Amino acid sequence: MILIRGAGDIASGIAVRLHRCGFTLAMTDLSKPTSIRRTVCFSEAVLHGNCRVEDIDAEKAASRADADLILQRGHIPVFADDDGTVLSLLHPEAVVDARLAKVNLDTSISDAPIVVAVGPGFTAGQDCHAVVETQRGHYLGRVIYEGSAAPNTGVPGNIGGYTVERIIRAPKAGIFHPVHRIKDQVQANEIVAYVDEIPVYCRIGGTLRGILPEGIRVFEGMKSGDVDPRCQPEHCLCASDKALSVGGGTLEALLHFGYSDKSYPA
Questions:
Q1: What pTM was estimated for this model as a whole?
Q2: Taking the CA atoms of the chain, what radius of gyration do you get in angstroms?
């Protein structure tokens, strides 16, 4: 079994790649996930009991027995795991840390026979066996077997000519209340949500590609939404080019270290 820690959009793109290759997967996320691109995130199973990303189904699991039954149905089990105990519950043969915290929260190279980390904050050969690059550009999805991914720049990737402008951030700490849904078309400077009573504006027009769910507690400056200026709503329903590229790199790393698992049908 491969345990993917994290079930946001990049982690879910990895899961899509691995699931379609026939590998046995389980995923974890927080009990109150903060995923933005929720229509392509398996973390939604934690909130709703089940979800579908593209043509792949996931179900919430609370035990190893739950996970086994979900896997037998050809679905992906997703655990709420605030304290990191699922790792010792499942004893996976491989671990993929795709939480994208930009730092190593608690992953160790001894967590499993194969440990792959995604993005900055990890050093291959010390924290994990391999790191997959997440920075958009020439090296996106490349596997690093010695060293680290590019450091976090704090600047989102360029989409449709926009970087920081496309990100929606919380203006203050409080409770998030969206007034728009994913796939909605929005205009520059339109109100898309409130934090408590304070309005949250988008900076550019386009398709609302992601937004936090109702009732999430946010901190000032927290990423809360994402506007895609390309205005193609169908993109909201499939894993992104970046997520699939990182998924391909993760697949390479697992195969490089000899991972093989066909315990359950794809």
A1: 0.92
A2: 18
